[in-house]
Every structure is written in structure tokens, then in C-alpha cells.
Amino acid sequence: MQCTPGDTTKWKEQAGYTTPEDYDNPNVQIVSCDNSGGKYVLDVAKVQGQQIATATAELSTTSNQWEVLLNFKGDAVGPWATLTAKQASQYYSAGQGNPETNDYWLATIGIVLDGNVITAPETTSAIPNGAAQITGGFTQAQATQLQNVLQYGSLPLNFKILTADTVSASLGHAQLVGGLIAAAIGLGLVVIYSFLYYRGLGLVSVFSLVIAGGLALLSVMLLTKYQNFALELSGIAGLIVAIGITADSFVVFFERLRDEVREGKALRPAVEAGWKRARRTILVSDTVSFIAAVLLYYFSIGEVKGFAYTLGLTTLIDIIVVFLFTKPMVTLLARTKFYGDGNRWSGLDPARLGARTPWRSSVQRTQVKRSSGAAPRSTVSRNSGEA
């Protein structure tokens, strides 16, 4: 068996350990490695992690170095005292702290987690009272890490692999292509529906979707470059859902606008009145979606976080597009003859929408009145039989 610095798994395969029970059985001797590449032969466990009462990393007031203080539960005090007494009397004095001798290693205690030796401190004296002090020139981070390992080791947990999925490069590519095809189909259906139902207004919805998609793509590229964001299949699903969110926003606006047209308003005032009614609904809808995305991201794990992240991102993009593009674009189109006169292909034809009264002209009317000093015009009336 070869121990390599930083290796925590390959050495187990070399030693023939195939299951956690092979190297995590406290009643059998095992071989092990530490993080620096050292090799160990470990006896059966004399004290187990759940028998540790407390583990605390502290800065020593005498040596001004970091150390870890241990306290053992009652059932571990006796075995711990026996082990340390034997090591201190038989091996510590003979080894004299020289790692080149066998006695030195027989005086050490291996602290093991998941089969790996975390550290192996040398026993310098018998410890009969169930309290121990581990020193060795630790930094604060190293002492804290050892404290956490000992506290974690005191938890009686066993991990079992329930499921394991391996995704090959070809399968990942197939999933990506499938997601993109689904997005294209969804976008195509929305475009077709927009032109069939909203006619000329469909141009606004299509350009809104294009801009929203471009901003989403740019955001993903920037996040990938500067924040190490990885777009997975779940993230693509979030982007596809964003098509519906953006479509929902302009549908709300367009329907409010068409309601104002049905009331007989001219297009320009109808745009402003419809927008005032629609923007609150749009903001409430997007706020609910964003809060749901935040909560889903916070409480979920794994790939679900990718879905929640892109859902929240595209919800913010939807607000930007609707407020800075969709509404201003409709305002500009209302000034054109095609839309302003209610062309039948504009999607705002009053007759097709069932308006109560025709649009009133927005051109200001002028009147010619007769001045008080002007002579009255002559009138000619004709009665039957008279001229």
C-alpha cells in the first residue's frame, strides 16, 4: 500500500477496503494513512469518539501556543488511563521522542476519522483523570480543525450510500441539447400564440422575450467567468420557466390596455391607464416568484439550487425588461398611424375588441363663431307655393 499526501480514498482501495465496515470497525486492526503521506498500523480502538465529552481549542497562557483540551466520559476514563500509563512507562522513555525508533510510534495515539489518521500525538505521561492536553505547535486553524474532528467523531453516525449517479460527458451533452430544444419549442409556441392573439402587439412581446433571453445569457456568462457559476440541467429548467414569467407580464399589460380600448379611450391615454393598472399586478407576481426562488435556494440542496438561482435571476430580468422596454415601446407605437388608428392587424382594433364607442379623435377641434358686430347672413326659406 502506498500513502500519498492529500489522498484519503485511493489507499483504501489498495489495502482492499471496499466498504466502510472494513476500515471503520473498532474491533479489528487496520492499516491507514495520514494527510501528509505517513503510513500507520493501528491496533483495535481503546477509546471511541462517542466517549469524548468535550473538545476545546484554546490558546495556552503558559506556552502561548494553541492546544486542544479533551475530557472523556466516565466509561472511557479507565481504558484511557490504562493505555496512557502503558505507553508512558514502556515506550515513551525508551523512544525519547525520536520518530526513527519503533518505541516512539508505540507511544503514539492515532486519532482516526473515516479510516484516515488525522493526527498521532505522542503520550508523555499517564493520564488517570480522563482529561488530556494535545499540543504540537498548532496554528489556530489547525487547533480548531482538530477540535471539530474530535467533536464530530463523538457523534455516532454511520453514512450509507443510498444512490449514486454517474453522468458521462455524452449524457451531459444530450441533456444540455434536450434542454435547449425544450426552450426553443416553448419560445416558438409563445411567439406563435402572441401573433395569433395579439397580432401587431406580438412584435413587442417577441422583442421583449429576445431582450430578456439576451440579458439572461449575458448574466450566465458573467457569473460563469467571475463567480464560477455552473449552468446545469436544473438551471436550464429555470431559464425555460422564465419564458412563461416574461410572457405573463406582457399578457397582463396587453389585457389591461385592451380593456381600456374597449371602454372607448383613445390609444395614448389607454396605454397610460392600462399601465397603471398592470404594473402593480406585474410587481406582485414577480415579487412572489422571487421570494419563492430565494426560499427554495436557501432550503434546498444539490441541483435544486441551480433551478432556484436562475429562476430568481430571470425574475429580476423580467422586471427590468417590462419597465424599461415593453412599456416604453408600446408608448412609442401608440404614436404611429398603424397602431394609433386601430388598424385591424395591430391587435388594437376597437371594432374587433368590441369597444362601446368608437375612438374619439385626439386632434383638437376648432370652431368659427360669428362676431357680434357682423351682419347677419341672409337666409332663404321656401315654403310650399312660395319663393
Q: Which descriptors would you attach to this protein?
A:
12 helices, single chain, mainly alpha, 2 domains, 387 residues, 10% strand
What does this structure look like?
There is one protein chain. This protein has helices spanning 10-14, 20-23, 74-95, 102-106, 140-153, 169-198, 202-226, 233-262, 267-299, 304-333, 337-340, 350-353; strands spanning 30-33, 39-42, 52-59, 66-72, 111-113, 116-119, 131-138. It is mainly alpha-helical and 387 residues long. The strands form 3 sheets. Strands 3-4-7 form a 3-stranded antiparallel sheet. Strands 1-2 form a two-stranded antiparallel ribbon. It contains 12 helices and 7 strands. The protein folds into 2 domains: 10-153, 2-Layer Sandwich (Gyrase A, domain 2); 170-353, Multidrug efflux transporter AcrB transmembrane fold. Mean pLDDT is 81; it is low at 360-366 and 374-387. It is 53% helix and 10% strand.
Mean pLDDT: 81
Spans of at least 5 consecutive residues with low confidence: 360-366, 374-387
Question: How much of the residues is beta strand, in percent?
Answer: 5-15%
The CATH class assignment of the largest domain is: Mainly Alpha
- Biggest β-sheet description: 3 strands, antiparallel
